């Protein structure tokens, strides 16, 4: 990969609404168990280690089914109101 050219990053198409709904379910499950959901999800997104996500309500299984890059894309789009 050449450092003087811009590389395109193509994220596979997923249903954004379904991804948001799943992320909300995971967030709620973490919160119900007494975790700080934001910290736990950030830990997972940065490290890729699903151990940051509780298995309560199948939250770990649900979040592993989503491409981490898709989660970041949705979060950034939401932050920038796109």
- Any idea what the shape is? elongated
Give the low-confidence spans. Answer: none
Strand segment count: 0
Mean pLDDT score = 89
Helix content: 55-70%
CA-based gyration radius: 14 Å
Helix count equals 4
Helix and strand content put the structural class at mainly alpha
Task: Describe the structure in your own words.
This protein has four helices and no strands. With 82 residues, the protein is mainly α. It is elongated. 13% of the residues are buried.
Label this structure with key terms.
elongated; mainly alpha; 82 residues
Brief overview:
This protein is mostly helical and 82 residues long.
Topology of this protein?
Blueprint: H1 16-32, H2 37-47, H3 59-64, H4 68-79
